[in-house]
Amino acid sequence: MRFWSLVGVVTLLTAGETLAFKAHDFKTCSQSGFCRRGRALSARAKEAKSSWVSPYSVEPSSVSISANQAVFSAAVKSSLYPEINFGLEVRIHDDGVARVRMDEVGGLRKRYDEAASWALIAEPTISKDVKWTTGKKDTRAVYGQKKEIEVVVQHQPLRISLLRNGKEQIVLNGEGLLHMEHFRNKVEATTTEQPEPVEGEGAEGEESSEKAEEQVVLKAENPRAWFEGDTEDALFEETFSSWTDSKPKGPESLSIDIDFPNHGVVYGIPQHATRLALPSTTGKDPTFDDPYRLYNSDVFEYLASSPVSLYGSIPLMHAHSTESTVAVFHVVGSDTWIDVSHESDKSTQTHWISESGILDTFLLPGPTAEDVFKQYTRLTGTSVMPAHWSLGYHQCRWNYVSSEDVRTVQQRFDEEDMPVDVFWLDIEYAEDHKYFMWKDKNFPDPVEMTNDVAANVIVDPHLKRNDDYPAFKQASDLGILVKPPSGQGEYEGWCWPGSSSWTDFFNPASWDWWINIFKPNAVEGRWTWTKSTTDIHIWNDMNEPSVFNGPEISMPRDNIHYGGWEHRDVHNINGMLFSNLTYQAVAARTDPPQRPFVLTRAFYAGSQRFGAMWTGDNLGTWEHMAVGIKMVLANNLGGFSFAGSDVGGFFGNPEPEMLVRWYQVGAFAPFFRAHAHIDTKRREPFLLDEPYKGIVKNILRLRYTLLSVWYTAFRETSVTGMPILRPQFIMFPKDKAGFTIDDQYYIGSSGLLVKPVTEKGAIDAKVYLAEDQVYYDYLTNFAYRGSSKGKEITVPAALHQLPLFLRGGSILATRERPRRASSLMHHDPFTLKVALSQAGTARGELYLDDGVSYDHTKGYFIWREFSAAKSGKKGVRITSKDLGKTKPAEAVDGVSLASYDPSNKFVQSVADVRVEKVVVLGLAGKPSSVKVEGQNEELVWEYVPGVAASEKKDGNASVLVIKDPRVLVKDDWAIVIQ
Ligand SMILES: *[C@@H]1O[C@H](CO)[C@@H](O)[C@H](O)[C@H]1NC(C)=O
Ligand SMILES: *[C@@H]1O[C@H](CO)[C@@H](O)[C@H](O)[C@H]1NC(C)=O
Fold this sequence. Notes:
Blueprint: H1 2-6, H2 33-48, E1 56-58, E2 64-65, E3 71-78, E4 85-92, E5 98-105, H3 115-119, E6 131-134, E7 138-143, E8 149-154, E9 159-164, E10 167-172, E11 179-180, H4 203-207, H5 223-228, E12 238-240, E13 243-245, E14 254-260, E15 265-268, E16 292-294, E17 316-320, E18 325-330, E19 336-344, E20 347-354, E21 359-364, H6 369-380, E22 393-397, H7 403-415, E23 422-425, H8 446-452, E24 455-458, E25 462-464, H9 470-478, E26 493-495, E27 498-502, H10 509-517, E28 538-540, H11 567-587, E29 598-600, E30 612-614, H12 622-637, E31 643-644, H13 656-666, E32 672-674, H14 692-705, H15 707-720, E33 725-726, H16 728-731, E34 745-747, E35 752-754, E36 764-769, E37 774-777, E38 782-785, E39 791-796, E40 804-807, E41 810-814, E42 830-835, E43 842-848, E44 862-871, E45 875-882, H17 883-886, H18 905-909, E46 914-921, E47 930-932, E48 940-944, E49 955-956, E50 959-968, E51 973-977
Parallel strand pairs: 22-23, 22-32, 23-24, 24-28, 28-29, 29-30, 30-31, 42-46
Antiparallel strand pairs: 1-3, 2-3, 3-4, 4-5, 5-21, 6-7, 7-8, 8-9, 9-10, 10-14, 11-14, 12-13, 14-20, 15-17, 16-19, 17-18, 18-21, 19-20, 25-27, 26-27, 33-34, 34-35, 35-40, 36-39, 37-38, 37-40, 38-49, 41-42, 43-44, 44-45, 45-51, 46-50, 47-51, 48-50
Bound molecules: 2-acetamido-2-deoxy-beta-D-glucopyranose (2 copies).
Pathway: Glycan metabolism; N-glycan metabolism
Protein name: Glucosidase II subunit alpha
Family: Belongs to the glycosyl hydrolase 31 family.
């Protein structure tokens, strides 16, 4: 299908858009010593073909299996360095996940081995159901319900594979690219020959001047040279642009190939601006020249199609085929480059090259995407239930300049009846960019202002170096700032406030300090943020960390953190600790705690536990609008569903048409915020002319009518780990045509399918339906019938239209009353939209709680199931049932309730909330009666004939509207249509 092969192709920059992305600020692989070495290794392996053999092998005599059978351990040697020892361990968890760890043992120094301790929520439970057997050539574990999974550790050369039913799913070191560079002392050079330019090194590589490196020419016949190359390349010192990295520990990189035989597509490893199904970076027909990179970076005006690293890193990769989904979670906190190649459409090869850290890789056996998400979130946690208001619309700008300004903007939203939940103040609220310190002249009344207007503020991790700034002074006195390479004193770099230092959140002494700062009442006589309220929520930006005058706009890698670890070891984890602590600080302001909202730019595996993220400083272009959708989808696959991109684009002045389309994109992302750069024109939606203004107002209102749908989707992800946004391959894992589709997606289990339009001048759009099912246009009730062979439909998509569908078989609970903010909706009645399937059935859920406290973890919530089933000859029976009662243990947020009280405190607080309308789509004919079961009274209803769900044709669906059935949301009831 030609059309689908074009889907998701992101065009390059348009003519008007200058190449403002500063490529020279960031390393390419060829400018990074360890990446160069890793890629050169793979080039030599490719050249040597079948004669290439990994020098690593298991010492058979050292193999030992723990008494409980779940842990394999063994000594590993590299034939190149017989004097160096490595330890390998493979453990099988109770959910079938296999964890592979390898480290140098008794080395000169210690490799960083704490990445998992920050990412994981708990030490995983070891399986009791594994049997290891050691043979001559290998040691293998067999497990699974039908003993269908096998983990095989081949001894020589070392090769680790995971099989299901005898078929290989994941293979480590199958290509022999494993290389854990051992610690060594610098040997004074014996020769000083210049290195040959290594594979892949272009002109830009040369200007980066690695010439200072000691070069030891090794003999060609030397097997070390055969494996590692002829010359030592950037092992002990490395220069990039004007920066020199002292690399006091010398080389310690880690290279490993991870292959997915029998899996033709891979997804994940956010964050990159590219297609969801990751294009190749090497092998045949690569789309990109460089590997994907994970190195949290503040990339100015990033490209809309590129493998460069962006603000966050989640080293989780899914591999998919019509038969299974599997994944690897490669827990490393250092700079990591990942090559992807698809030698055939049936398998995928990847090569991971990290600067430091131990090998700590989790093999997630699936076999379904649901299983993979469960396995992954059992390791790193699920997204938590957000504060309900945070699913509303966020209005942001750099900057609303004064209290007056914010109040006026809020007033204008109210005058136009445009819903909005919160306003964000960017860095200019703070005097000299000293966060917590209001610019008094412009914000003379911060407490009153934040009480009047729901205003939230930014707090960045850099602290202005000024003794008059209490946050800096306290951190400096406590000795909790990141240290320079000498390990003495305070690292000083340049950021918004000028000369700045950074708190070292790896230092436990920083934790209570940071949590206390946010308290509106002074703690033990210390300065805290007294000019604040417990309603202010926080946006953490620049936490990659961004350092304007540092290498790659970040911190020098040889900076020192707590425990003596270098910044290089923890770089990608750093931003997560900041949002973790801010999240705790915001929660701790009240007793009992209220659900915090923390927005973060940098992230790592596990960041989903601490709030939301956005895709950073995008551009106001169609290309960025389109790729933002893919980036948010990729983030959802990375376990971090609460994601969105800046509506309108951060940079530029989008024309009205683009802005409208961008609102349509934003309204269908879990996190919905408009934001703009300081140099842009004001573009709040009320400033638009008609018809644009009216269209945006309708989009905002549509978002608010669907808030309970989003909230219900969050409940599900908080328990199952299933992403909120679901691309085709998750919904239809066997439909190959859907594997590369990344511009349409489903929202949770709601049955909503959306295809945002991201093309200028569009009047229609193509949507792919993978199944023989009816899809109802959400706004017009037009019924489209899909096909089990897959079918592309063309739907109207002029500016005021939006390709949004309700899948047959779904019941949606919406709140249709226009309100100015979500907080005003708690007692609003519901409308149920019953979209009958071709089989005449439907199902949906509604989850509600108070949206602010943690009472839901005590069982204070409503969780209902609505179903529609055939009743009698042509009748339908719609029922409401209490899921809290039937499945209390699976209800919410990682708590396993033993029981649930259907008349709990929350239920009582919304006892009066009723269903005000029921709309049934696709009935086969006009009913003769509609009644609440057990009551004689005929309900008030209206029927418009049209296409029935069972009919295999397109057309306006039949619509039955039942007005005010007088049933309550909290009750069990049935409505019978005869
Ligand atoms: C981060 O969050 C988790 C809870 O998810 C917590 O257990 C941990 O102690 C937190 N702190 C740090 C510094 O990571
Ligand atoms: C379908 O409904 C639309 C209104 O949504 C109407 O304009 C159109 O005439 C209807 N078509 C038919 C065939 O009834």
